[in-house]
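Researcher: Good morning. I'm working through a list of sequences from a screen, and I'd like to move beyond sequence-only analysis. For each chain I'm collecting a predicted structure so we can compare shapes side by side. This is the next one on the list. No need for commentary yet; just the structure.
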Amino acid sequence: MSQPAQSMSQSMSPSKSLQQQISEAVQNRAAPISHLLRLMSALDADASANENLRHQLRARIGAPLGG
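Model: Good morning. Structure tokens for this chain:
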């Protein structure tokens, strides 16, 4: 029964920086759109956010699912 909680904590690990979480989500083609949108919201709230990260995440959100 602890597996769903375990996988949830791994996907939203507070020990990872926002940059690390975004990098992993951009590379993970199976990342749900809800997760990507939560990351975008966190990125928008961060005044010191790297504009390049914002572009990468926006591109990933708009990327087609295939290949």
